[in-house]
Structures
1.
Amino acid sequence: MTRAIAVDWSGARAGERRVIWLAEAVEGLLVRIECGRSREEVVAHLLEEAARDPDLVVGLDFAFSLPEWFLRASGVDEVAGAWELVAREGETWLADPTPPFWRIRKATSNGFRRTELECGGRPKSVFQLVGAGQVGTGSLRGMPFLPKLRERFAIWPFDEPRLPLLVEIYPSLYSGERDGYRNEHARDAAASALALSRWAGDWRRLPRDPEYALEGRIWQEGLVLGHG
């Protein structure tokens, strides 16, 4: 039985409790959907849930890392260093963005991670800090929480997959009923939780290809599992 929680994250500076939505599903059935927590409170809640249920799978819809070329140019060669860099510099990038972060120009192909170019859909660059559907602000205000979550969760694909497990999600990839929710944040959290809970694969056999070791990888339902 897969019990899954998905969080529609937000980088909002104010009012985050209204726009961060959490959904839980068990074996393809939605059992709760709610908002009202800050980012810090969401992280604390997930840690509590993982302590209570060691088989938990959680999906968060922000980028877990940055493009490899940018990280290596910044002297970073492993993902913990990427999270430390974002924790140190993220608010500066948001307050006064300089290339490759942007608000008024469009990203080129080197603004994307490998996983975003492969996954399908129409992903946004993590360097984009404005506009509909942008993930940059939420990612810069999400990555600094990953070391804390790593204290209890394995974070795929950076860690050997085990439960409880944390994965990066992209809600536009997940099928299912997308009408009848209060807003798009609730809808995306619900669709993601349902997709995670319905997946028939073995979470402990998720692939860990070295190409994604620094940039991370978006979880998809059609992933080919590694060997046992």
2.
Amino acid sequence: MTTSPLQSSLLTWLDTRAEMAVYAITHGRLAYGNQSFDAQMRDDATLLAEFIARPRSLPAHVPPVAGKAADATPVALPAQTLRDGTHADASDRIEAQEWLVPTCDGPIVIGCFRTQATSSANHALLRVALHDALTDLPNRSLLEDRLFQAIARSRRNRKLAALLYLDLDQFKPVNDRYGHQAGDIVLQTVAGRMLACVRETDTVARLGGDEFAIVLDEIDQQEQAEIVAAKLIAAIGEPITLPEGATVNVSCSIGVVLCPTNGVNLISLMQAADQAMYTCKGTGSGRYCLSTAAPPAIEPGNWMEDNEAEMIGVPEIDRQHETLIALANRLHRAIEDSEDYVLQSALLDELVSYTQYHFASEEALMDRYKDPNAEAHKRQHAQLVAQVQFFRHALSNSDSQMILSALRPWLIRHIRSYDRALGAFLMTRKAREPGASPS
């Protein structure tokens, strides 16, 4: 059978350019391995031989494949561990996702795994996207994910979760007198002191400027949150010595909310914490205030709500944004409920497919109305689609929580930046051309 130019090009790319290690095993022998696979396995002949010889069994819920039907559906096999992650760096763990493909010549095992270099690069990129550059604390996007997880655990385990919003007092005079470099040192010092006041399971995040937030996960009573708030006030209030010898003092005001006491929804809790913090600032520095907010009568229970994306005023695109958020929520529920890999993978595929359709719809509007920002917007689309490869790596390596941490900013940031600008442009064009409607 001849190979078409398209097939030849695909095989060349798979063999020489694909970052994923891809291989095929048949009759107990390695039938194919691309360059990434060879690079990963060439220095450990023992591991390679053991890996190829491993028995592959079907999952318990999948019946054995009958006969040698050439058109039988590939079956996902249990993940194969190549290397366990060390305690210090669990990202070293490598697992291969495999499928059994029945053919007329017998079953073929097709597998792939991400290489160590790819894994390190993906984790590095994700860390940059989800952490504050100055303090290395989680940023707002990662805080929201951690808070949502804490809310979910609070519901399941009938314990409390607390959110503390913290704003520094007397910070502006430090910047004004000693300069921004001194201000940066103060922020880094304060970040370290906050981390020393909480448990490893808690989250300290920088929201921007001199505002921080802390999630206390699974606490038994309100007093525990108050004790942490008091410790924070005392620690932050200690003098800070700058490199040139000057000593400065800052204090803080803290707003404290509890889940479920003040609400069970991410947005309402964050709003209540912000309000409590500013109420506290009005009573003097170095204090904390407990929120008096009552839970809203009706609170949404989704991971992402439609209003988080902010409608851009173009009906066609707004409807697509609602669908994207619904699909993301379905994937989140499947991960939270520990559904099997096949379902999670199918939901991720559905989300990705609809995202590509959505991008095509936007690009058609850009071309139709000659959007001057179209080139940059399309480049952003290409980058977002490329980042989906990271989600697939994470899912195939049982790193579902990493998907949850990355998925919200991946979706929401684009809508709030490029899509909002596109909406404003299309609305302007619509106003100028009454007969033309972007929807």
3.
Amino acid sequence: MKTRLLCTFAATAVLFGGAATAAVNLPQLNIDKTQTTVSGLSSGGFMAAQLHVAYSATFKKGAGIVAGGPFYCAEGSITNATGRCMASPAGIPTSTLVSTTNNWATQGSIDPVANLQASKVYLFSGSIDSTVKPGVMDALKTYYNSFVPAANVVYKKDIAAEHAMITDDYGSGCSTKASPYINDCNFDLAGAMLAHLYGTLNPRNAGTLASGNFVEFNQSQFITGHGMAPTGWAYIPQACTAGTQCRVHVVLHGCQQNVTLVQQQYVRNTGYNRWADTNNMVMIYPQTSTQATNSCWDWWGYDNANYAKKTGPQMVAIKAMVDQVSAGGTTPPPAALPAPTGVVTSGATASSMTISWSAVTGAASYNIYRNANKTNALPVTANSYGDTGLAAATTYSWTVKAVDGNNAESAASAAATGTTTGTPPPPVSCYTASNYAHTTAGRAYVLGGYTYANGSAQSMGLWNVYTTTTLKKTATNYYVIGSCP
């Protein structure tokens, strides 16, 4: 995309919304309904504000908005959306939007504004955001001042970030504006938002997300068309599947960021799931389709005149997703399926192994665990799985779990071991130095004032002698950010 992320409002659209293969219905879990929150970037930020205000009884706990703007900012006008709500914030009629909010609440078009008084709100604007100017977020803070106590609002705008979701370890350089619009600014924005909304959290999972499941769910259960894809995604920690009471957080991508366009990068690499895994949070990632204008959420009325009210089609659908996943009781789901049997390994190569097992009656799919870490990204519906990316001449252990239609896993099978062929890999070398020293030593390169690791192209931050990074050499002239034992 050669123009800004949030809205190009092109007259043409690609009429493809993604296939619903292997999708399941969202499970009904034991959810604390008083702890439901929402966050979003760009069009997802505007949508998060809409959901927070219109459904304040549901999202009473709070919201995080990144590069969004005030509720009903566009007032149903594409001119307002692309003008004052993005580039010319001085024209945003904040007092009028506050009056509209109060009037709609009185009429019952949105929930009572009194629900917002106990909310927490986290706002983020990159200081060099050229798509949604920081002044738009200033207007959002002013808007929230009419409904949310100032002590409950955090507004961070001191990072020189372009228009993107910000992380501390994944994405493009902080000043980059390009797909997938996820930038490594050495700041864990997802963690900061969740900590403000919920208070003190357990440390995030710093390793592999082994205990939970990524679920592609059936969005068509809630809505067909209206700019939404047939399927969405969720991350569900194992404890939540097993009956532990959990919390729900809805994550809304920006324009040009749905799974069709950036695959699962927003779902997997924006930092939310690592906190969910250790704090019993279910993450729901609704998805637009490419039929939506610029693949955006509807925050100016491209789909429906009531887009910002409780009757807006996209609003209704997302609320229904939250209601369904929150509809379980305190009783754990029925006993999971029996553990698979007959697990064997075969077909070893220097980098892969085939794992096979006997079918389990009633299983909808299977999950495969290598050395206790889940390896498959999508549900496995066959009775075998090819595990790749293995090290040569190395012995691994695999177990398999059967998954039923409610996404409940069985106990693990007996382990099957196997050894890859080839010669052992050379010892891993690690180098800890300034980014300047890495580049002069040939382990990294510089682009636009930022440093990137040779081979992996991982962003290391600013090119200077003050930023220190540890690089791990995994192959000839191939380095990744990490550490060595």
